[in-house]
Amino acid sequence: MDDSLPTSTYQKRIFSLLLNLLIKKNxxxxxxxxxxxxxxxxxxxxxxxxxxxxxxxxxxxxxxxxxxxxxxxxxxxxxxxxIxxxIxxIPFIIxxxIxxxIxxxISFCSLPIxxxIxxxIxxxIxxxxxxxxxxxxFNFPTKMFSTLLKYSRKLLFHVSAKTP
Length: 164
Hints:
Elements: H1 7-24, H2 27-65, H3 71-87, H4 90-107, H5 113-135, H6 140-162
């Protein structure tokens, strides 16, 4: 066996052979992309549920004990703030999904670093665009805020009419 071959050249040959094998056998499309998408969805759902539950409980506690609001108004305010917080956590979700898909593609799929970085950035941008188009993220906070203001005004008028 010839040991005079440098390690970097040997690794480049192994990476190119693996990449050719992945592309020729369609393993790249059937394994790497669905696994990276799974980790993107996992990171998105985990951070979304965590931010929703934390901000919902904190805002409800704050509005009940510090602002002395009614229970329904404090819950609606905390729900609005939690959804608003989770929407603005999307850049953090993108960074987390980029990191997870880079780690996944390097460790499990044996892809080169530059190819895995390109693939993960592309997938995370596609995922963000799909989420923005399907959930209409850009108009959602303003619509929810106007609806919340409308119902809170009705509730305040109702409460002020009943108080002597």
